[in-house]
Amino acid sequence: MPLFDVYPLYDVTPVSGKDVKVYDDKGTEYLDLYGGHAVISIGHAHPNYVEAITNQVNSLGFYSNAVQNPLQKELASKLEALSECKDYELFLCNSGAEANENALKLASFKTGKKRVVAFENGFHGRTSAAVAATDNKNIIAPINAQQAVTILPLNDVEAVKQELEKGDVCAVIVEFIQGVGGLDQGTTAFFEDIDALCKANNTMLIADEIQCGYGRSGKFFAFQYYNVTPDIISMAKGMGNGFPIGGILIHPDIEAKYGMLGTTFGGNHLACAAGLAVLNTIEEERLIENTNDLSMYFVEKAKTIPQIKNIKGKGLMIGLEFDFEVGDLRKKLIYDNHIFTGGASNKKLLRILPPLTIKKEHVDQFFKALTKVLEDIETPVVD
Ligand SMILES: Cc1ncc(COP(=O)(O)O)c(C=O)c1O
Question: What's the pLDDT at 380?
C-alpha cells in the first residue's frame, strides 16, 4: 500500500540518534540543527529519557483517564516549578494542533463567543479551528473555512481594538515568536496592549508556545519576555522530546466542568514519563542557561557572515535571512555537509532549531560548513 504522498522528502533515512547527532542507514553522521522541527529538546536518545520510558513501558504503558494517574500530577507540579506559571491548571493531550483546538474551545466555552482573532503569517496547526486560525489558504479546506476567524497584521493594535470592541471575539491567538512563518515577533507594546485589550473585552489571550515554549526562546515560555498574563498557554513539540504529548495551561478564571474536554490518549503513563524526563533534564542540565549562552555564541558568529542580512528570533529559535532563497543552500548543507537545518514560509530564511544541549563545537561546525557552501554557490554580496 503506498503512503499518502503529502510530504516532500529529503533522501536521507535516519535510523539512530545521540544528542545533537543523527545517523542514517549507511552510518553517515549528521549534525541536527533542526531538532525534527523544534521537537528534540534534551537531545536524541538522552539516557534519562530512554530509562524513564523503558521503565514505564515495563510497568504500565497506558490506562485511560477514568482512573487516578499520579504521573499527571507529578508532571503538573514539575511544570509549575520550572515554568513559574503559578496557579495555572494543566490539561494534557497529544499534539500541537490538539492543544490549540482545546484552547480555542475553552475560550469559546468561557466567553460564550465564537470569533477568533489571529495574525498574518501565524501557524497554529492543521485541524478544524486551529487551521482556520492559520494564515495559509492552501491548507484550509471548505469545512475549516466555516470557522469565524479574522486575521490581522502583527503589531496593528488599533485593528485588534476595533475587532475586540465588536464584542463577539472569544480568543486572540498568537505566537510570541512565529515559527513556520519565519521568526517574526510583535513589539513589546503590541503584546502588552493586546493583553490589556483582551482583559477589557472578555476575550481570552491564547499564547501558542508550541514551538517557542519549553526553554527554546531562552525563557521557559516566550511570552515571559513581556508583562502579559495569557488565559491559556498551548504546548507540544519540546515537551516530549519526540514522544507525542501536548497540553494547555489554563488560568484558574476558567472553571473546569466534567466532560468539557477529554481525550483517550492524552496524559497517558508513557507520555507523562517522557514529559517528566524532559523537565528533569532541562533542570538538571541547566538547559535554559545553555540555550542563552549558545544563542549568544551563535548570533555573534552569524554577525560575521556578510551574506546574512538579518538575524531573527530568540534563544535557540534563530532565523538567518539571506537575500536569496535558501532551498539550494539547505540541500548543500544536508547532502554535502551532513547538517540538517529548517526552512520557513519566508523562503529566504534558514531556521535553526537545535536540541537545547548543543555545544560551541557544533556551532563552529555549522559556520565552517556555511562559509564553504556560501563560497561554492558564489552568491553575489549585495551591500
Ligand atoms: C506554533 C505552532 N503551533 C501549532 C503547531 C501544530 O503542532 P502539531 O504539528 O503538533 O499539530 C505547530 C507545528 O509546527 C507550531 O509551530
Answer: 54
Residue 250 lies in domain: 47-284
Residue 21 lies in a domain: yes
C-alpha pair distances (Å), 368 with each of 65, 79, 333, 353, 363? 50, 38, 11, 18, 9
Final residue in a domain of this structure, among 284, 311, 337: 284
Residue whose Cα lies nearest atom 16 of ligand 1: it is 211
Nearest CA to ligand 1 atom 3: 124
d(CA 316, CA 155): 23
Q: What is the CATH number of the domain that holds 29?
A: 3.90.1150.10
Quick one: 204 and 301 in the same domain? no
Q: Looking at the structure, do residues 79 and 196 belong to the same domain, yes or no?
A: yes
Pocket of ligand 1, candidates 104, 131, 211, 235: which has the most ligand atoms within 8 Å of its Cβ, to mutate?
Answer: 211
**Which residues of the chain carry a pLDDT beneath 70?**
378-383
Burial of 141 (0-12, 13-18, 19+ CB in 10 A): exposed
CB distance 247 to 107 below 8 Å? no
- With a pLDDT cut of 90, the percent of the chain lying above it is 97
Could you tell me the three cell numbers for 244? Answer: 507525542
With a 6 Å cutoff on the Cβ, whether 267 touches ligand 1 is no
Q: Is the CB of 242 under 6 A from ligand 1?
A: no
Residue 333 domain flag: yes
Q: CB of 175 closer than 6 A to ligand 1?
A: yes
Residue 42: DSSP 8-state: S
Nearest ligand 1 atom, CA 236: 10
pLDDT of residue 55: 98
Q: Are residues 259 and 296 in the same domain?
A: no
Taking the centre of ligand 1 as the mean of its atom positions, its distance from the CA of residue 104, in whole angstroms, is 14
Q: How many domains are contained in the chain?
A: 2
Residue 183 beta carbon below 6 angstroms from any ligand 1 atom: no
The backbone torsions φ and ψ at residue 305, rounded to the nearest 5 degrees and listed phi first, read -100, 110
